[in-house]
Amino acid sequence: MTAGDVGIGIVGYGMMGKAHSFGYTVAPVMRPLRHRPHLRVISGRDREKVASAAAAYGIGTWLDDWRELVQRPDVDIVDICTPPGSHAEIAAAAAAAGKAVICEKPLAVSYLQAAAAVAAVEKAHVLNAVGFNYRRLPAVSLMKRMIDEGAVGEIRLLRATWLSDEFVDPAIPFDWRFDRSIGGTTIADLGSHVIDMTTWMAGPIAEVSGQSVTFVRERSGRKVTVDDASSALVRFDSGARGVFEMARTAVRRPCDFTLEVNGDRGTLVFEYARLNELRYGDGGDRSELYGMRRIRAEHPLHPYARDWWPIGQGVGYGSSFVNHLGDLLDRWPDKPWEPDFAQGAAVQAVCDAIERSAAERRWVEVAEVMDNRTPSPAASPPPTHKVGR
Ligand SMILES: NC(=O)c1ccc[n+]([C@@H]2O[C@H](COP(=O)([O-])OP(=O)(O)OC[C@H]3O[C@@H](n4cnc5c(N)ncnc54)[C@H](O)[C@@H]3O)[C@@H](O)[C@H]2O)c1
User: Fold this and answer.
1) Is the pLDDT of residue 81 over 90?
2) Whose CA is nearest to atom 39 of ligand 1?
3) Distance 43 CA to ligand 1 centre (A)
4) Options 3.40.50.2300, 3.90.25.10, 3.40.50.720, 3.30.40.10; which CATH number does 4-133 get?
């Protein structure tokens, strides 16, 4: 049922270059696609490494310059898998060349940069999407569907954490992740997923109060310019309240993310370590059943389940890329993609607001970041006491 071929050019051969190559390769195996993706070309700065990645990922051509990649006539979609500080420039060049653009998260390292990327794709009228792949895990998708269907009632509270140990060891050498201008913050690296999923489920965030800390301030003799860990209190437009925590310094926590929603009628909990399941507490259950039931998000009635293995076999991280890229290809070439750059920029505004709040020790409205406003004096009373670092 393939209606046509789509040429893919991937910029960046690292972990995400591999994950996206996997997604394009496996999607047509698992589900009928209207358009078959062809991995035409991959680019990277290191010729030896990009050549060996191209061979491993089954991509016929490699280049050492992304500028050449975005101009190629056999590329319909430019898929950006490089560090965040490079996204906006590559996206703008790809859009100007008339290519659809898929960009890894976070969309940029600042709201201003993200807004420029949005302006570029809108001006060029090209399809655009941000790599918030975790939405497409079956259990996370089911959580969203259950919330929309009223399973928890009106959302009152949201709790989300993303904990990793990738920055624990002070001997880890300096790389792009420790440089604010190219890697962005931990708030954006881990928090952008949390912000995307919670706003997808509960609507926009109005204001935040954040705190940030950097425990290891120097690596390989260079100054670390990003936070190791941050957290935030959050108020949604709807009035719901949230608590977010993102840390790359949580010992023996590999990539543990959790989402919990408490409504006036029920509770839903997702834990990444058990990614095929949801826990659901239904306030309408008989009292003898007090507690939470464990839902296996693999039934053929559940999102994406029909595309995967028989019930009970489960899926993993890779399925989120297969589902994400498969959904985008299904909508090629004329149906809008989701989440798009505008949603990526809205997430970036929340990241910037948390960062600003932590730096200035006050609640920050997200609109203040989007309008590039400075706060009214009443909104930021001076601190009445001195606090350590
Ligand atoms: N969605 C997810 O699950 C997920 C997971 C990990 C990373 N990411 C995101 O994917 C992006 C890439 O991360 P990764 O883990 O693949 O990184 P990586 O370090 O494994 O690979 C980065 C790639 O970009 C290239 N590169 C490095 N510095 C560059 C620069 N200054 N300019 C241009 N290219 C440069 C490298 O040569 C390499 O090809 C980041 O935005 C990251 O936040 C997303």
Assistant:
1) yes
2) 12
3) 12
4) 3.40.50.720
